[in-house]
Every structure is written in structure tokens, then in C-alpha cells.
Amino acid sequence: MRFVEEVVVDEFLPTVRSLLAEELRERGLTQREVADALGISQSAVSKYAHGDVATNDRVAADGRVAETVERVAEGLASGDLSRVAALVELEVLIRRLEAGDLLAELHEAAMPALADAEYDFAVHDPDSGLRERERTLTSLRRGLRTLTATSGFAARIPHVGSNLVECVPDAVDIEDVAAVPGRVFDVKGTARVPSDPEFGVSEHVAGVLLSARAAGLGVRGAVNVRYDPDLVERVADAGVPTVEFTPREYGETDPGASDDPVRAALETAGDDADDETVVVYQTGGVGVEPVLYVLGPDAPAVARTVRDLV
Asked: Which intervals hold domain HTH cro/C1-type (predicted)?
């Protein structure tokens, strides 16, 4: 008797680890860094590098395996992908390959009696919430890399700080929006990100994003920058819809409520704001700093829009 998990451990895992180790080394990581990224010993990395570990040719030649390995290796090397996110991506691939696919075929080869049996090993949900949250964090990290590398962005950060946020596809509240804890601040002309993104740590920018979604926009990313009438003009000249709203005292309404000022302004704008990217802004009030918000499909897209405008 042989379980499909044994096929994963004996054939899939050594092959994928070998491919990942090779990809990471090609991206300039040291043997120690590769070991840390994969959660294995340096001696194991050395064995993979020298071909001392048996691998499966069918697994190595599978296009989906190759695509996942390349994507995971790039994310681990750049820091955009956490080890948890990498694990989730590989777990999802395993479950898909188990469901009457490559791993199921390898399992049948090891257990010929299974060939005529009806079975289903798709025990993990490929569209799990954990996967979506990790993918959102990965996307947000990419956006932050673009934003902090943008010349002139630091000068656009409001006094209250800036934040780049992205929500999961089915977001309903603040806990579904990832952001930078403590916000991004201008430190001597450089945009500083104090810590790794988390969910539920932004209320203000996340609230604007949720309000826009409540108004019917399909946006998932947002960032706030200092209001400047010249910037609004450049945004309009670039063909990006701009919508002004009247700020209210913070906490006076819940994000997305029917009387929320951002939602109301966008609903009034109607089709004029029905675009992949839109800018909403307020020119300030008593105790309220004027701020401009760029909303878009995801955090990297929003960051690129800011990069192109500043």
C-alpha cells in the first residue's frame, strides 16, 4: 500500500526543491540564503546543487510545475513572497496535480490497483482565503517597492503619512484590507516603510477604498498623497477621472455607508468615475488636511500611476 502523500514526499518534493534551489542560486542567493528560504539545511542545498538527490523527470518537465517554481523563486528572492505564501502556492499546486492529474497518475503507477478505482484527492481548496490573503500581501509588497523607489514620492506624502493598501477580491471590512502598520512617512526626503504589510492596520485609506467599492467600483488598491491642484490637473490631462468629495469629521460615518462622502461623490459621478483608475480628493477643512487618493485595480497599478504623475 502506498499513499499519494508518499508520492509527494518521495518524488514531487525533492524535484521541486531541486528546481527551486537552482532558480534561487541563479538569482544570486547564497547557499545559506537558499537553505533559509526553503527551510532545509545547507548540506541538503549542496546535495541538490550536485545532483545527489533523485528527482522525477515527469514532475520536472511539467509546465505548471516550472511556472510555479519560477514564480515562487522570484518572489522569495525579491522578498515579495513570504515563506507562508510560497508554501500556499506549492500546496495548491499539489492538490491540483493530485485530482486526477500528474500526481494521481504517478500514484496509479506506484499502485496499479488504483487505475480502475474511483477516488478524489482534492481535499484542499485551490481558492482558499489564505491563498488570496497571501497573494494580496505579495501584490502590496510589489507596489511598495515601486512607490518607495519613485523619485519625488516622499515629497508627496501628507503630514499624516501615506499608506498603500490592497484588499482581497471579496473584501467587506477593514480586516480584509492589507496595509503598512504605522503608515509610510517622509524621513529626510526618503519614503520609509516601517514594517511588513498586515491586514486590518489601516482605517483611513482602507476606508476610502471600501467606500469606492461600495459605490460599485472594482478597485482593490489605493494610496493617499498630498493634495495639489496642479496634480489634479495633470491627472485630468492624463485621462484619469477625478472626483471631489467633501470631508467629514473622522468616524462620523462608516466606510461605504449610504451617507459616506466618498461613496456619495462617486455615485453622483456615475459613469464618469467608472474606470480602472480613478482619483478622489478633498481640499481640506477645519482640522482636516487636504488629501488626494489614487484608486486602481491593485497596489502595483496604483503605485505606477503615482510614479507616472509625480
From this structure: 20-48
